[in-house]
Amino acid sequence: MARSSLPGRLPRGPFSPDFWRSPLRGTWFTSVLGVVLLFGITVLFVTGLVSYAAYNPDLSPVNDRTPGKGILGFYLFSWPTDPPWLYRLTQGVHVTLGLGLVPVLLAKLWSVLPKLFTLPPARSVTHALERISLLLLVGGALFEFVTGILNIQLDYVFPGSFYPLHFYGAWVFFGAFLAHVVLKAPAAFRNLRRMRRGEDEEPDEDLTAARPDPPTVTRRGALGLVGGGSLLLLATSAGRSFDGPLRRTAVLTPHGGTEPGSGPGAFQVNKTAEYAGIRPDDTTEEAWRLTVTGRTGTVRLSRAELLAMEQHDADLPIACVEGWSTSDQAWRGVRLRDLAALVGHDEPAAVYVESLQAHGTWRDAALSAGQVADERSLLALSVNGADLTPDHGHPARVIVPAAPGVLNTKWVTRLTFGDL
Ligand SMILES: Nc1nc2c(c(=O)[nH]1)N[C@H]1C(S)=C(S)[C@@H](COP(=O)(O)O)O[C@H]1N2
Ligand SMILES: [Mo]
């Protein structure tokens, strides 16, 4: 009756409750997905903060140019060098879990879609505040997932700016996430307990379709589909953190799939020498010199002179921010702390490392005194029993235990020890 008497004032399209017909929607479906995300996103947030700390962002602006991070950097700590596989683990979990949660996130957003269109837009001040926080929550979630995935799939679409974007986005998202959890988690857990006791789900007229279509799949079936999608994504990306047959299962993401050839240099390459603009003429025995500067002055060393210094071995992985990593490689070269001692730093000192690369992020990096002091931290000249290949950083590259790949500078040409 109201329909014919008030034609112009009836909500139409998605604003009409009749528009939403899926019988899957309801508090049970939303609660299950919500609880999975509660745990998953918490792990993403923690491993993300840890990943940020791993760049030595406080050490020097070359590592992190995030403007005014101020109090958001409150928790930063000095990144350890033990265990050497630490970043392999934390960043592998961060990226792989993030990919695996994509179907869950999409299903969760789909499940609450009708709420976006409820009328009136705000029933009370609390309701208005809740909806604004949802804007930050959904926007934040999409922003973090999209920037993260773009960064691993199309490496370096945000040259230099990925860190501030993803970092600030994370805090906005997590703030809204926390508010949402405080508001909604009790009801979600209550709902799950009701389910387990075989009771009906809590009603929610904004979620449950008023006039549902006949089901084509059960709610359990739909959850199975989402979970299956997640498992498929996990199974096709987790292999990037392992060698051998497992790596070949990582077909969906860069640096997985086929093994990188054979021979001593046959492990993943991030940027090739050609991509980084390294001219072969600049890396010859005659042309290349390492310039080491410190308290007592500057020393210039040829590769032959470096090889004449005491050589040390360290079995260490490369672990990239993009989530892939290698198993331990057998590096050999000069200890960073021996090079520090050459220029008067017998006490551990931080170092600013520069490469032959003229442009682009990660052409330079700063390492902490703790990293320099570790006896496994090398300026490596060879790997797996052979000279470094051009793509792995010939004539010399840094390798530091537990550090993110970006701090393992390739094609090194200058080391400056001292306070940064
Ligand atoms: N000069 C320079 N060094 C660099 C980079 C770079 O772009 N330029 N990339 C870093 C990154 S992001 C990673 S993951 C490692 C990869 O080392 P690999 O190619 O030997 O595996 O090198 C690091 N060293
Ligand atoms: Mo990397």
UniProtKB/TrEMBL annotation:
BP GO terms, sorted: respiratory electron transport chain
Gene Ontology molecular function: any one: oxidoreductase activity
Upper taxonomic lineage: Bacteria, Bacillati, Actinomycetota, Actinomycetes, Kitasatosporales
InterPro entries registered for this protein in UniProt: Di-haem_cyt_TM, Mopterin_OxRdtase_euk, OxRdtase_Mopterin-bd_dom, OxRdtase_Mopterin-bd_sf
Name assigned to this protein: Oxidoreductase molybdopterin-binding domain-containing protein
Highest taxon of source: Bacteria
Gene3D superfamilies hit by this protein: Oxidoreductase, molybdopterin-binding domain
PANTHER family xref list: BLL0505 PROTEIN, PROTEIN-METHIONINE-SULFOXIDE REDUCTASE
Oxidoreductase molybdopterin-binding domain sequence ranges: 283-417
Pfam family, one: Oxidored_molyb
Annotated Gene Ontology cellular component terms: membrane
Keywords assigned by UniProt, alphabetized: Membrane, Transmembrane, Transmembrane helix
Transmembrane intervals: 28-55, 93-113, 134-154, 166-187
